[in-house]
Amino acid sequence: MNNAAPNATRNILVVAHAQRVDTVDAAERVVTALRAAGARPVIADDRNELAEVRPSLADVATLDDVDIADIELAVVLGGDGTILRAAELVRNGTAPVLGINMGHVGFLAEIERDDMDDAVRRVIARDYEVEERLALHVEVRDAADATIYSTWALNEATVEKASRERMLEVVVGVDGRPLSSFGCDGVVISTPTGSTAYNFSAGGPVIWPTVEAISVVPLSAHALFARPLVVGPEHTVSIDVLERTDGTGVLWCDGRRSHDLPPGARVVVGRSNVPVRLARLHPASFTDRLVRKFQLPVDGWRGPAAAVEAPQ
Fold this sequence. Notes:
This protein is an alpha+beta fold.
């Protein structure tokens, strides 16, 4: 149970994919329920796009009208991409994010669309727990080691080659010491939350959310020692784009924020002092989430079936 003190006005952010009719319909249902309960729904800067599909949303408040610090919680209607967008929107506040999956895998989502009405009821009742997830602080430094760009990531920071026909020459370091240099397509630096995303597709390990760690996975590396690494959150990882690189690289964070990396640039990644807060409705295990989201075979399991089928 979330025991936050009630505010005079309860501002609930509703984030929906404006290009999908089903998510806009869901947004309208959530907005109606929040208003009926006396809360004020707030939507992002895509109000006009949403209103083109559902005119009833034309008069909903936006983040231009409400300070992000006054947002109590963000209800997200969509897949993982929309949830990452919501996390970005509330980054400078304290609002937790509650994901309702309207997409495919939806690994970050808490529940599926069929349970949406119950989720809104529990949001109104403040009947949820808040879980903090490790986020990354990411800096780009120039050849003089001056910081020229900084950002953050919930899932991963990825250094990639900018041109398909080129290869990046990089050297990976940990805590200011060189580890290995090689040519590659890139390097993925992931949180436990992002371990089931790009990290997983690149051959990295799945990391339980309760394990605070950072995963480092080279992409198509031409090297004998280019296996995935896992370091503790107190360590920093650096990726230097070597001067001999034929071309440029690019930094991507959560697939949303990018910065060009010329030869000589260094990307430094460590734990952010500001975690991402996720709202949780069910205490089911991460194992059950893996089985359900990836549709893993569990034939032969000798324990209770409910352990695999529990809702989350």
